[in-house]
Design brief:
single chain; 202 residues; alpha/beta; Rossmann fold; 7-stranded mixed β-sheet; 20% strand
């Protein structure tokens, strides 16, 4: 067996929807958040500044409420099954905040040690501040093993570019052009994606 590791984007790759727009409905800012998310996914806005703007709009929601909503996010079950079969070799790489997504990561079946994400501080069940915003490119550079990276948006392009095998997954939403131009493969069907990933485990 080879020693490849698999790095999965979370939103619209492992999940069937974007997480932040779903949260935005709680504070009546779904339209603004959706617009920022789309512009970011297409590479029109830098991820870090866009993410901080979106977090600022959502920070009035209690952490416990966010965690409950996020935990109910629908998942691409075939991808989750692949992760379960290869738990030691799979990682989630997402810009989302640790304090928001921990229950969802556990639902997927991974420990937080297998999740690279942005980090925040919490006080009295409210978001106190964002401490760091994840750079996906730096995550790939840390691995000694060959990397297979899977994502859909512009913020995944550098992660995919640096991977031995970089996959644009368009099963939920169209693959961003910047990612597609850096990918070794583009797959639009979840079942075919997982079949391909299994060949990379051999």
């Amino acid at each position: 067996m080879n020693n490849r590791v698999f790095l999965f984007d979370l939103d619209a790759t492992v999940t069937k929807v974007e997480i932040l727009p779903a949260l935005a409905e709680q504070v009546g800012k779904a339209k603004q958040i959706a617009e920022l998310t789309e512009r970011t996914m297409h590479g029109e806005l830098p991820f870090k500044s866009s993410f901080l703007m979106r977090v600022d709009m959502l920070k009035t929601i209690p952490i416990s409420t966010v965690s409950r909503i996020v935990e109910q996010t629908p998942l691409n079950e075939k991808i989750v099954d692949f992760i379960a079969e290869n738990r030691e070799r799979c990682y989630i790489v997402t810009g989302n905040l640790d304090v928001w997504i921990e229950p969802l990561i556990k639902k997927i079946g991974l420990p937080m040690t297998h999740c690279y994400c942005s980090a925040a501080s919490v006080e009295n069940d409210m978001l106190l501040r964002v401490n760091s915003v994840l750079d996906k490119e730096l995550v790939v550079q840390q691995f000694v093993q060959p990397v297979v990276a899977i994502g859909d948006g512009s913020n995944d392009a550098d992660m995919v570019r640096l991977a031995e095998v970089g996959i644009g997954y368009g099963g939920v939403r169209p693959v961003a052009y910047s990612l597609m131009s850096n990918a070794t493969h583009v797959v639009y069907d979840e079942e075919r994606l997982c079949a391909f990933l299994r060949t990379l485990c051999e």
